[in-house]
Amino acid sequence: MKKLPEEVVNFFQNQGFVIVNTIDAKGYPHSSCKGIVKISHNGKVFLLDLYRAETYKNLKNNPRVNITAVNEHKFHGFCLKGKAVRLAEGKFNTSLSRAWEERITTRITQRLLKNVRGEAGIAHHPEALLPKPEYLIVMDVEEIIDLTPQHLKK
Fold first, then answer.
1. pTM value surpassing 0.85
2. Beta strand 44-49 with 64-71: parallel, antiparallel or unpaired?
3. Average pLDDT, whole number, for the chain?
4. For residues 154 and 135, what is the distance between their CA atoms, to the nearest angstrom?
């Protein structure tokens, strides 16, 4: 497990969602959007998955995963590579469930404020319709890839 620098932890904590990539039974990449519930400096990433679908099946057969996030405006991003395990509902603590609920509430609030300011978007709040999480993904980060182009790094 790799220690995560403060910059990486803060970057991922501030993302509305990330792209999680797993490998399917035929060896092809599968990408899905997930929300990070918690990320720790000791190299653990916690994601609650709302569906037991492709990501769930893929992790059963192959624990290798990467998580990617970018900030298009700042032309900056990271990819975390590692291995993950699935924990069934009820096997994770309530503080993670509360953290997920707080993140959903924050996303709804941010969307509402943008709508009030007249920023383009959708009027309804799809986050409010999301189902209860089905299971927890716990990833141990083994490698950090900085996606910022070399000539733009400070």
1. no
2. unpaired
3. 85
4. 39
